Amino acid sequence: MLICNTVADMRAAVSDLRVPGSVGLVTTMGALHAGHMALVAAARADHPSVVATIFVNPTQFGDPADLDKYPRTEDTDLAMLRAAGVDAVFMPDVATMYPDGAETIVETTELAHVLHGAVRPGHFRGVATVVTKLFNIIGADAAYFGEKDYQQLAVIRRMVADLYTPVAVHGVTTVREPDGLAMSSRNMRLTPADRAAAPVLHQALTDAAAVLRAGGTVADARQAIHDRLATAPRAQLEGLDFVDAATFAPVDGAPRGTIGIMISAHFGDILLIDQKEIET
Ligand code: PAF
Fold first, then answer.
1. Which residues contact 120 (CB under 8 A, 6 or more apart)?
2. I want to staple 181 with a disulfide (CB 3.0 to 4.6 A). Which of 1, 86, 177, 231 is the partner?
3. What is the distance between the alpha carbons of residues 125 and 113, in angstroms, rounded to a whole number?
């Protein structure tokens, strides 16, 4: 497995790997878990060559303390990627991705500012900017992102469509712990009590989905989520949104079609997010 730290080395590595349509990309911030490895497996199933990136992107963190606390497990990450047969890993430093004088940003002007974006100003601009840079450096044919980061996936799809970026974007189903908790690099920072409480997010989403599938309203589904969260007081609800999956517009009443339910909650100082997409 090749490890590249410079743009020139990364481009040379990919040009050796590439035959048309052959390179799948998995972008990560490290602290890899089974969810990331499902992305690698999906990329591998579709493409003879797989490239992964590890870069903790400072521009998508609003709070510098959150950036400092982000887990960094490079040796384990590289061992996992090597074992999964990844062909090359791009691990740039911050100065490579944001050299002095860099001033260009990429922003989805609507989608970045609603829902999670409304409470995390700048977050999706940071994601869109770094993902554009990574797409431009690597030139992969396809890229794989987890559905757990539901709005991030929508932002990246919007950006790629708007900019005619020649990369196919694939969403991959969220991988869960046996108790339903969505895999996340943040899970390793939960206290034992918060870790025990955290599956309540998935349970609450499942309750809300059952309500909507039975013909209930968004108000009923919200109530079901609040009832479930009341059983786990460690969860401090931050955001709860019901959206049309195609447009990300909020839905109300008894919605029909493909509906996304997005939830975020603090467990201590750790923010966890989860989502569920359902047909009603
Ligand atoms: O989902 C992530 O890990 C990050 O937001 C991404 C897409 C690698 C951009 O930094």
1. 62
2. 177
3. 9
- How far apart, in whole angstroms, are the C-alpha atoms of residue 212 and residue 207? 9
User: Which amino acids are annotated catalytic?
Assistant: 36
| Same structural domain, 143 and 228 | no
- The 10s digit of each residue's pLDDT in 10-67 is 999 999 998 878 999 999 999 999 999 999 999 999 999 999 999 999 999 999 999 9
Residue 52 CA: distances (Å) to CA of 10, 69, 144, 161, 221: 11, 22, 10, 22, 38
Half-sphere exposure of 116 (CA within 13 A, CB side): 26
Q: Give the model's pLDDT for residue 20.
A: 79
* CA 27 – ligand 1 centroid, Å: 6
Token pair belonging to 174: 């969220």
Q: Would you state the pLDDT for residue 93?
A: 98
Nearest to 270 by CA among 192, 207, 156, 202: 192
For residue 97, tell me if it sits in a domain.
yes
In short, whether 57's Cβ falls inside 6 Å of ligand 1 is: yes
Q: Which domain holds residue 81?
A: 2-172
The residue from 172, 200, 235 where one domain ends is 172
CATH number at residue 207: 3.30.1300.10
The count of structural domains within the chain is: 2
The 3 state secondary structure assigned to 206-272 is HHHHHHHHCCCCHHHHHHHHHHHHCCCCCEEEEEEEEEECCCCCECCCCCCCEEEEEEEEEECCEEE
CA atoms within 13 A on the CB side of 86: 30
Ligand 1 contact via 28 beta carbon (within 6 Å): yes
138 in the same domain as 57: yes
Which residue in 267, 214, 209 sits closest to 242, CA to CA? 209
Atom of ligand 1 nearest to the CA of 28: 8
Is 212 in contact with 280 (CB distance < 8 Å)?
Answer: yes
How far away, in angstroms, is 30 Cα from ligand 1 center? 9
